[in-house]
Amino acid sequence: MEGDTQKAAVPAANEKADVVVVEDDPFISRMYQVKLAKAGYHIAMGVNGREAVALITQHQPRLALVDINMPEMTGIEAVNQLKNDGYDFSRTKIVFLTNSNNPNDIEKAKSMGADYLIKADQTPRGVLELIRQKLGEVSS
Prior knowledge:
The chain is α/β, with parallel strands linked by helices and 140 residues long. The protein has one domain (2-133): Response regulator (Rossmann fold). Helix content is 44%, strand content 16%. It has helices at 2-9, 26-38, 49-59, 75-84, 103-111, 124-134, and strands spanning 19-22, 43-46, 63-66, 93-98, 115-118. The chain has a five-stranded parallel beta sheet, sandwiched between helices. The longest helix has 13 residues, at 26-38. The protein is globular. The chain starts with a helix and ends in a 6-residue tail after the last helix.
């Protein structure tokens, strides 16, 4: 069974990820990787905004869980770049999961149609439930 969980965590080269997680904190990143894998999602992981752009473009996931304050490019800058590049967000829901409670970041995220979660206010279980809700896997 352990091998099944690991298989679900990282898609094979020819598979698309259901969820892209982009988080520069290794502990938080690993926590969500394990939680989402156990829930049966194929996951692609990144650690900065440039990887967010590349992974979302490559996998066209159903949902991207993106930190805002990251090296190289913020999560908001990454999503803006995707929009400027013509990425079709009709398939991909964006959820920002961040430590920032900056009103400007919140406003920018909301204007993008993204959800905005502050890490300190969330549990992994709560985030998983939101993901399921966003993907239409549970009733709201």
